[in-house]
Amino acid sequence: MPELPEVETIAAGLRSRVVGLVIRRVDVSLPKLLRATTAADLESLAGAAVTGVRRRGKILIFECGPRNLLFHLKMTGRFLWVGPGAPSDAHTHLVMTFAGVPGELRFRDVRKFGFCRCLAAEAVDACPEVGPLGPEPLEISRKAFEDRLRGRRGRLKSLLLNQEFLAGIGNIYADEMLFAARLHPLAPALRLKPAERRRLWVAMRAVLRRAVAAGGSSIRDYRGLEGEFGDFQTRHRVYGRAGRPCRRCGAAVRRTAVGGRSTFFCPRCQRTRL
What we know:
By secondary structure, the chain is α+β, with helices and mostly antiparallel strands. The chain contains six helices and ten strands; from the N terminus they run H-E-H-E-E-E-E-E-E-E-H-H-H-H-E-E.
């Protein structure tokens, strides 16, 4: 599933391509793509200008005047900008066209888990998809982050994946930031020392910033708006590297499961303290 760096990369690509364009129409061929949204809601977007595209957690938000469009890519959702007459396929479920522009924006989703919702702009931040989300990892201050960690009883990996704790972190970057902070994924948040909490905040920001700069991680389905690959997968320190030498100490990277999710760590650099 695309995480914060991938969704931020897509948002940047969309901003450069569609902000300022006027929507001509939005066509949906897969009814289950729509969440709490009717055909009339989509028709109301005709003639509206796209004034912005932003990310909240793993959600993309198209700002279109009084109405906004929310998209969650889930496992395999992708946006593609294509030229006129480009062939489509059975996995393209939404097409957005614009006045006076020959190209079109397509939403493609092989596994059909993604969703789109149209709602009033003033309702976005309080809607069920956005309202419960925790702070943004690249915006939260060190003190606020440490305060959120205090008193938490969960394991670090599970806590980082909790979107109500922080928004946008997923499996890849939770592993990478825990490695960077030298913290075991099963370590209880409650037992972190002040220096370890600070270290995790620093590692979180550093890993996410580097990943955004690299265009995210292209492991399976993720591509940018023009089909470009991310590059951060070549810089992973532990994720997906089970059995291979740790790039810091040489010990074999291990794989375990936390909450049903594959989790990668170095047993030497990230010692367990239960």
